[in-house]
Amino acid sequence: MKTIVYLLLILCTVRFGYSQRTVAKDWVIVPGNRVGPIKGQTSEKDLVRIFGQKNVRQADIEIGEGETEPGTILFPDDQTKTAFVFWRDTTTRESPKTVSIRNKGTLWKTNKGITIETSLMAIEELNGKPFTLMGFDWDYGGTIVDCNGGRLIELGSNGQAKTLVLRLTPSNSLRLLPEYQSVSGESDFTSDNVAMKKLNPRVYEMIVSLR
Q1: Could you report the per-residue pLDDT of 109-122, keeping only the tens digit for each?
Q2: How far is Cα 171 from Cα 37, in angstroms, rounded to an integer?
Q3: Using CA atoms, how far apart are residues 115 and 109, in angstroms rounded to an integer?
Q4: CATH number of the 27-211 domain
Q5: Which residues pair with 143 in a beta bridge?
Q6: What is the pLDDT of residues 68-116, one digit of tens each?
Q7: What are all long-range contacts of 45-48, with beta carbons under 8 Å and residues at least 24 apart?
């Protein structure tokens, strides 16, 4: 009897270990629902259990305009896996409100294939029509504000709650062109704007909201 119980414990341990390794290698983002294994009720303790203590670090994270917010960095030493988690409750560090992805070469991508460095033209094709984004050259420059009734409803449209924020910027060399100045500043532009098409900016940050 003891032998059977012992074998069952080993089997459960192996299965649990395999399950945890599988979960920890999930890099798919479903806006509003999950960022890999991270969901709306996940806690920092859960992140440690899933990813390991060495891959979970508390920090004050930059959020723009010189401000920071307390959060948790996943895989701070591996840019292909890094994610920035912001909490609804920063004391208990439970219930993520948003997760930000910022690094080139990241493994994280949405269920529709959007990731860091995805181009304006590729996003427009996925959306099925032109979308609206803010002008460049300020802290929130290049942020998509409306999918204009397209397929990417996670970007927000006609009162639809936004669950994915995408921020785009052109390459450094293209910022020297006059077209860059023509679509800079705190104004809105459509993705089919001639200057926008020429610059074809790419995603530099993805911010995912979790419910």
Answers
A1: 999 999 999 999 99
A2: 32
A3: 5
A4: 2.60.460.10
A5: 167
A6: 999 999 999 999 999 999 999 999 999 999 999 999 999 999 999 999 9
A7: 45/93, 47/72, 47/74, 47/85
Kindly calculate the radius of gyration of the chain based on its CA atoms and give it in whole angstroms.
20
Domain parsing of the chain, residue ranges: 27-211
> HSE (CB half, 13 Å, CA atoms) of 68?
8
137 CB-contact burial (10 Å; exposed 0-12 / middle 13-18 / buried 19+): middle
Alpha carbons 107 and 205: distance in angstroms, whole number:
13
Question: Can you name the residues that pair with 35 across neighbouring β-strands?
Answer: 29, 38
Which residue, among 105, 17, 97, has the nearest Cα to 25 in the 3D structure?
17
Q: State the helix-helix crossing angle for 2-24 and 44-51, rounded to 10 degrees.
A: 100
In the three-class reduction of DSSP (H, G, I as helix; E, B as strand; rest coil), residue 45 is classed as helix
How far apart CA 45 and CA 63 sit, in angstroms, is 23
Using the structure block, give the residue that is written with the tokens 């705190």. 186
- The torsion angle over the Cα atoms of residues 15, 16, 17 and 19, rounded to 10 degrees, is 90
Instruction: Read off the pLDDT band of 19 (50, 70, 90).
Output: very low
Q: Which two tokens stand for residue 40?
A: 């709306």
What residues have CB less than 8 Å from 189, skipping those under 6 apart?
A: 132, 133, 134, 135, 183, 195, 196
Number of neighbours of residue 133 by Cβ within 10 angstroms: 26
